[in-house]
Amino acid sequence: MINWILLPIILLYAGWMFYRFWQKSKQGACTSCPAARTCAGYCTTEPSTIAKPDCTGTQ
Prior knowledge:
The chain is mostly helical.
């Protein structure tokens, strides 16, 4: 009897978590980040003063 109660609860919770994950992944990395409001790192649209490595290097 308890199985008939727990199974729908577990499935609904898993579905809800999948839905939340899907919605946050559509927002992008920075907007879905919990620290987006206080983050001064990579989430800014301004050009950074830190030099990024050149990804077009030779082999």
